[in-house]
Amino acid sequence: MSRLYLVVTLTFLVNVVTGQQELKKYLEFAQEKYEQGDYVYALQYYDKAMEIDSNSINTLWNYAQTLRAYKDYKKASFYYGKVFERENGELYPGSLLYYGLMLKQSGKYDEALDVFKRAKKHYRSDRRGYFYKKSRNEVQSCIWARSNVGDSSNLIFEHLPENINSVDSEFGHRVYGGQLYLSSLKADSTNEEVVYDTSYHTHIYRSDIKDSAFQDPEKVEDLFWSKYNSGNGSFSLDGSRFYFSFCEDEGIGYKCKILVAYVEDDRFVDIDTLGPIINEPGSNTTMPFIGEWEGDEVLFYASDREDGDGGMDIWYSFIKNGNQFRRPINVKRINSMDNELSPYWDSENTTLYFSSSWNNGFGGYDVFKSNYTTTFQAPENLREPINSPANDLYYFKTSSKDTAFFSSNRLGVNYSKNPTCCSDIFMLRKPLAPKPPSIEESLEDLNKRLPVTLYFHNDIPNPRSWDTTSNVNYIDSYNEYIGMIDKYKKEYSNGLRGEEAADARDDIDDFFLEYVKQGVADLQLFRDLLLEELQRGRKIQMTVKGFASPLAKTDYNVNLTKRRIASMVNYLQAYDNGVFKPYFNGTAENGGRLTVVQVPFGEYEADQITSDNPNDVKNSVYSRAAAIERKIEIQSVDVIREEDTVTTILNAEEQVLDAGEQLLGTQIEKVFTIVNNGDKPITIEDVRIPCECITAETTVETLQPGEKGQVKVIFDTKGYEGHEVKSVYIMYSGADEELRLVITTELK
Q: 94 near 472, Cβ under 8 Å?
């Protein structure tokens, strides 16, 4: 062995040992900083470790965890994905769930939805566990977010100026006595941005508001402790007491309790801790808000005290004589397995506002409200621009209720390193004289909600009927359909075993969640927007198309889809004691009108691979492939302008010819009767024929209102076989869409 070889080998071994020693040192430093909550420095050490060894699963996991804590969602999603790809959740079961959560908080809802579906299947062996329930919940949440993204109100949205918002985190709490009370996370001895570091603490500040301008904030010295955190201030109803959070650093997070200070002029004195009724020993208790409820003073707050639902819950306790607290009550209607935080009680409207990471939302924490009647109602998302893919918290209104504030770490906040590291305070206010939307804006808002797709069980409504209308209300058939989920799971998984059976049941579960239930949610939102426009006196034409699975003959299915469209119309007419009825029958005092144009496509748009064997109910009725074909779609909305006193509508008395079984090479002929159902003349501008196998001619060039004409269509089947669908399209004056005439047949 040569001396050179020995030297090279020894040098290599020395370098390897040195590298391993450095790697160990960097990882130890990184973990120490992470546990202290100093994520910036932890990431610096992990970056150095990754330069030495980027293949270690442990390092990748810890790096992803630190990126998530630092709220670097995009990079965290990448590394969680790498961890799961390498170890399939065996070492780190949460890797797949966190991968999806970070994608969602990056606003990548389609990608996140796919990951959460995988996660739901991955965790289904423990259906009572958090990972499975959270993944299932996030499937629905991503579907909701994807459907609601882009919905913005007409509120004026402002980012507070830089004298309030720094590159560190600021959280707004209250406007009281012409001052904004906030807490800010600032270093005691450095200007470098750190999210949670032992040199950084949140302290309470206040800013005078003069002529709508925020003055430079001043630290409230009476509530300042250099080594502790304070925040979340709220005044008693008479202004004599000030409740706030006092927290100790525990590395990753805080341990908090609620304190009260008495107010003397501009000073906070006689500070004391609330008793164990509120600050349960061993629990984390924080975020107080004082409000009025039916004449009594009430304290809302967040706590992870025992007998909660998991994580931080919202609780409330009535106050007597300023210092006696009744037994706290858990707001069970809104609390979940995740955290519910930052309560704000609107006593005038008996509405509780709070933030949650569990309910349908756009990202991490979204702001919700729950109206109280005789009990708290289901949480309602406040949508954009209040909510975003990031964390949105600390929503509250001013006493005049015309301005609201909230805090968020969304893109657009001030920062020095990570664009979503730190929270800023934002303000919302109503415009003084909001302008009604133009017709173009109305049309855009309505069509943004489309298509609205509604699904049906087989041969519903009015089974085994040739009727073209129905008295069934769609929401009734929907409720019956939802009640059949277990039957669908049983039938579709029949004959399967193990993972295949579980996959089949999950496919049905996903279908009802992603399509059937979401269809109703979309319908309700569209319904409200539609009603707003009708109440403005708009004349609206709504086009609805129907589809069916290919189990029955086409002519039967055409009538079935007409009944399905009728059930949706029945739902609108019955809604809110018939509020839509005057618009359907043309008796609305404001001149508003709603017209429904039906396009009953039957089954000829369905996937022809779908089973049409009546003896194979598993695939022809209960399969996802068959179920997804049984639907109607609200596909377009046209607003007829005020200056247009007439409308143009061209229909066919029979839009579809089902020629049934025919011999190969047969010529199929059909004379379609078209009619002008509008109230002004129509000119036939073009007959579009996509296939050379079709010839078509019309006997008319113009049609007066109520006048009929004929279109002769011939389909030469030579060279075709099996199931065939051929169409002719009539373009006419004053229309954006063509009238479609169809011949369908089975060639043998």
A: no
Omega prior to 288 cis, within 30 of 0: no
Residue 56 phi/psi, 5-degree rounding, is -70, 125
Do strands 267-273 and 254-264 pair parallel, antiparallel, or not at all (unpaired)? antiparallel
CA distance 122 to 151: 33
- Cβ proximity of 140 and 201 under 8 Å: no
Query: DSSP string of 425-458?
Result: EEEEE--SSPPPPPHHHHHHHHHHTPPEEEE--T
Q: Indicate the Cα dihedral angle 123, 129, 133, 134, nearest 10°.
A: -90
Three-state SS for 189? coil
- How long, in residues, is the chain? 748
CATH 2.115.10.20 residue ranges of the chain are 156-429
Q: Where are the beta strands (DSSP E) in 347-391?
A: 351-356, 366-371, 380-381
From the options 2.102.10.10, 2.60.40.10, 3.30.450.40, 3.90.190.20, give the CATH code of 646-748.
2.60.40.10
Task: Please identify, in words, the CATH class of the domain defined by 3-148.
Answer: mainly alpha
Q: CA torsion angle for 478, 481, 485, 489 (degrees, to 10)?
A: -130
Residue 116: the pLDDT is 96
Contact 65, 97 (CB under 8 A): no
In this prediction, residue 610 carries a pLDDT of 52
**297-307 in b/e burial notation, b at 16+ Cβ within 10 A?**
bbbbbbbbbee
CATH H superfamily, domain 156-429? Glycosyl hydrolase domain; family 43 (2.115.10.20)
CATH 1.25.40.10: which residues of the chain?
Answer: 3-148
DSSP β-bridge partners for residue 318: 298
Tokens representing 339 are 């955290």
Q: Note whether 711 and 672 are within 8 A (CB).
A: yes
Structure tokens at 116: 């959460």
pLDDT tens digit sequence for 495-553: 999 899 999 999 999 999 999 999 999 999 899 989 988 998 888 888 898 887 765 56
Q: How far is CA 723 from CA 75, 278, 607, 661, in A?
A: 50, 71, 11, 9
Rounded-to-integer distance, Cα 580 and Cα 598, Å: 18
